[in-house]
Amino acid sequence: KGKGGKKHLGVSENSAFHSPEAEKNVSLPQIPTPGIHPRKGKAAIPHLRLGAGLRKPNGRRGALLEQCAQARGTRWAGVPPAPARLCRAPRPHPYLVPQSPASRSPDAASESSGTFCWVSGRETLAAACSPHRSAVGHPSARPPGGPAELPHVSPGWSGGQGTASTAAPPDSRSGPQPEPEADGVMRQLPYFCRGQVVRGFGRGSKQLGIPTANFPEQVVDNLPADISTGIYYGWASVGNGDVHKMVVSIGWNPYYKNTKKSMETHIMHTFKEDFYGEILKVAIVGYLRPEKNFDSLEALISAIQGDIEEAKKRLDLPEHLKLKEDKELKIRMCTFGQEHLGKVQDYSPLIWVWKLSML
Ligand SMILES: Cc1cc2nc3c(=O)[nH]c(=O)nc-3n(C[C@H](O)[C@H](O)[C@H](O)COP(=O)(O)O)c2cc1C
Ligand SMILES: Nc1ncnc2c1ncn2[C@@H]1O[C@H](COP(=O)(O)OP(=O)(O)O)[C@@H](O)[C@H]1O
């Protein structure tokens, strides 16, 4: 047992989900893995110790973590997770994500070398590596970029029900948007959110020939501040339906000079009928471009069609298809237990284990 074995790992109440794709698209800070052989992965990490406040995942939570690990086929199965194991997973790893220095750390400055975070749907294990100081765990901390911005909804989901998509736009933002900071945007992806489909201005189908399902105000309001306005792509499902490719526009539609921010999803699928009132779930996995103004309706339509084609292509890339098939995404997109969505208390570890065991 190494030094870390005596102390404990923490488990947070939050969830986040990052893909290797998100890491590829941006230059995230390199995770230092001092002393770790990439394949053998068992070298000592003399300076890596568990900090105060970490708890050993024993009892029900420990069992949960083991089951999650087993379900994922990670190397954690059957062993008590320790920071060394957190750090030894080869990169890129979909559940081991670099996190920015954590401000909630007792000594944030010391974490500048990187924080590691293993994430399963509900549980998050975190440890930080620093060449100068021992690791620090955050038992109750959310992973940076995780859904702590989604305070009143079920873990991992931004959602709500309502009747309109609103958010007061600063005037300066109604024009063309600057390229969002990749660091800010991509750290949030994949970003999951859900909500009841509400009515918009009815332009999508009629004027553009491209219907876009609108999310309610609460969903738009709960978007992480780091997710800039712009055009994104990802996966979507409606009600109990299958997962389809989608593009989503987040912002003020400068062409129409909307006064309220909205989030509008076009799903690349032909539906038999409208689905107002249904629960729409989306996983935003990538960014396409900022919102723009256009000289003509034709130019707007042509840009949106270009986005759709580009999104289709990108979503066919192996990393995206892999994500689509990922258990985590299936759990988040699937319908069993949907009645629980929105009630944090119903996302008990036992329900989560039950869901994993269903797969
Ligand atoms: C992929 C995509 C890209 C879009 N890009 C822009 C854009 O660059 N500028 C803009 O003003 N609106 C853009 N929109 C928003 C459309 O203008 C909007 O969906 C349309 O006004 C329909 O709105 P409605 O559902 O409220 O009727 C985009 C929508 C989608 C789906
Ligand atoms: N492929 C699709 N993607 C998105 N919405 C669709 C699609 N097919 C049908 N719809 C329906 O069309 C509605 C959007 O049409 P739209 O004309 O943009 O109206 P609104 O402005 O009310 O959103 C959605 O709410 C949904 O019910």
From TrEMBL:
<dbReference type="InterPro" id="IPR015865">
    <property type="entry name" value="Riboflavin_kinase_bac/euk"/>
</dbReference>
<dbReference type="GO" id="GO:0009231">
    <property type="term" value="P:riboflavin biosynthetic process"/>
</dbReference>
<keyword id="KW-0479">Metal-binding</keyword>
<dbReference type="GO" id="GO:0009398">
    <property type="term" value="P:FMN biosynthetic process"/>
</dbReference>
<protein>
    <recommendedName>
        <fullName>Riboflavin kinase</fullName>
        <ecNumber>2.7.1.26</ecNumber>
    </recommendedName>
</protein>
<keyword id="KW-0862">Zinc</keyword>
<keyword id="KW-0285">Flavoprotein</keyword>
<dbReference type="GO" id="GO:0005739">
    <property type="term" value="C:mitochondrion"/>
</dbReference>
<keyword id="KW-0547">Nucleotide-binding</keyword>
<feature type="region of interest" description="Disordered">
    <location>
        <begin position="130"/>
        <end position="183"/>
    </location>
</feature>
<comment type="pathway">
    <text>Cofactor biosynthesis; FMN biosynthesis; FMN from riboflavin (ATP route): step 1/1.</text>
</comment>
<keyword id="KW-0808">Transferase</keyword>
<dbReference type="InterPro" id="IPR023468">
    <property type="entry name" value="Riboflavin_kinase"/>
</dbReference>
<keyword id="KW-0418">Kinase</keyword>
<dbReference type="GO" id="GO:0008531">
    <property type="term" value="F:riboflavin kinase activity"/>
</dbReference>
<feature type="domain" description="Riboflavin kinase">
    <location>
        <begin position="186"/>
        <end position="316"/>
    </location>
</feature>
<keyword id="KW-0067">ATP-binding</keyword>
<dbReference type="InterPro" id="IPR023465">
    <property type="entry name" value="Riboflavin_kinase_dom_sf"/>
</dbReference>
<dbReference type="GO" id="GO:0046872">
    <property type="term" value="F:metal ion binding"/>
</dbReference>
<comment type="function">
    <text>Catalyzes the phosphorylation of riboflavin (vitamin B2) to form flavin-mononucleotide (FMN), hence rate-limiting enzyme in the synthesis of FAD. Essential for TNF-induced reactive oxygen species (ROS) production. Through its interaction with both TNFRSF1A and CYBA, physically and functionally couples TNFRSF1A to NADPH oxidase. TNF-activation of RFK may enhance the incorporation of FAD in NADPH oxidase, a critical step for the assembly and activation of NADPH oxidase.</text>
</comment>
<feature type="region of interest" description="Disordered">
    <location>
        <begin position="1"/>
        <end position="41"/>
    </location>
</feature>
<dbReference type="GO" id="GO:0005524">
    <property type="term" value="F:ATP binding"/>
</dbReference>
<dbReference type="Pfam" id="PF01687">
    <property type="entry name" value="Flavokinase"/>
</dbReference>
<keyword id="KW-0288">FMN</keyword>
